[in-house]
Amino acid sequence: MTTIRHHLSDEMLLAYSAGDLPEAFNLVIATHVSMCDECRARLGAFDALGGAVIEEDFSAMSDGSLEACLMRIDGMAQATARAPRRGDGVFPAPLVDYVGGGLESVRWRPLGLGAKQAILKMGDTGASVRLLSIPGGAAMPDHGHSGLEMTLVLKGAFRDEKDRFGPGDIEIADDSLEHTPVAEDGETCICLAATQGPLRFNSLIPRLAQPFFRI
Ligand code: ZN
Ligand code: ZN
After folding, report:
1. pLDDT tens-digit profile, the chain (215 residues)
2. Which residues surround ligand 2, an ion (CB under 5 A)?
3. Which helix (H) or strand (E) holds 53?
4. Rounded to the nearest whole angstrom, what is the distance from the C-alpha of residue 181 to the centroid of ligand 2?
5. How far is the CA of 179 from the centre of ligand 2 (A)?
6. In degrees rounded to 5, what are phi and psi of residue 152?
7. Is residue 94 in a domain?
8. Do 205 and 150 sit in the same domain of this protein?
9. Ligand number nearest to the C-alpha of 6
């Protein structure tokens, strides 16, 4: 088992525990948590904390809000029961559930130069999420971000100006970061990436292609 070096922040785990995030980020976080003992333990603590706060407020509640609260606790109990389940070898279980199968069931669209992506359908539009497959040695198009971007490595590794990201590592980028992730030589890098708002590309052709590829 490789060591995960890049984790989720407490703020992100708290927002996830509280159910405050768009579905696209929830999927990336659930997938990382299923791969990462450390984040799973921290999330368990936040889930328990959320339940304790709700119990304390119970006596002061009207009927309607009590009902809403019970539904939330029900959701939390399910959330607390999150345990690592086995996926298909590349995809952890939360991702298998979303895709409806393993790596072989992904319907890829070519991005050029051997790179490909598959956009996953989400129930809300707060953020989008896609699978990316980048051949070893190839770069993702040069881009900045108009919002938060979360990239989780499932297989292989990539490097950018900042660091190296291997299986289970999560890179958080925002509008302050312009980076060029490059897949490490020798192995195709498969990532799960959620982005809030459209990315703006720096070179002309990818910018023109953006409405088609929805990167
Ligand atoms: Zn982690
Ligand atoms: Zn990026």
Report:
1. 568 999 999 888 988 998 888 899 999 999 999 999 999 999 999 888 876 665 665 555 566 665 665 566 555 555 544 555 566 689 999 999 999 899 999 999 998 888 999 999 888 777 889 999 999 999 886 666 778 889 999 999 999 888 999 999 999 888 777 788 999 999 999 999 998 865 554 554 444 444 444 44
2. 149, 173
3. helix 37-56
4. 7
5. 6
6. -110, 125
7. no
8. yes
9. 1
Handedness of CA 173, 176, 178, 184 (dihedral sign): negative
Q: Specify if 55 maps to a domain.
A: yes
Task: Report long-range pairs for 108-116 (Cβ below 8 Å, ≥24 apart).
Answer: 108/133, 109/213, 111/141, 111/213, 111/215, 113/138, 114/138, 115/140
In a shared domain, residues 150 and 198: yes
Ligand nearest to the CA of 160: 2
Identify the nearest ligand to the CA of 38 by its number.
1
CA of 214 to the centre of ligand 1 (A): 28
Distance 92 CA to ligand 2 centre (A): 22
What is the pTM for the complete model shown?
Answer: 0.77
Q: Residue 44 belongs to what domain range?
A: 10-81
In this structure, the answer to whether residues 136 and 194 fall within a common structural domain is: yes
Cα 194 to ligand 1 centroid, rounded to whole Å: 16
Query: Distance from the CA of 149 to the center of ligand 2, in angstroms?
Result: 6
- Helix (H), strand (E) at residue 69: helix 63-80
What CATH number is given to the structural domain containing 187? 2.60.120.10
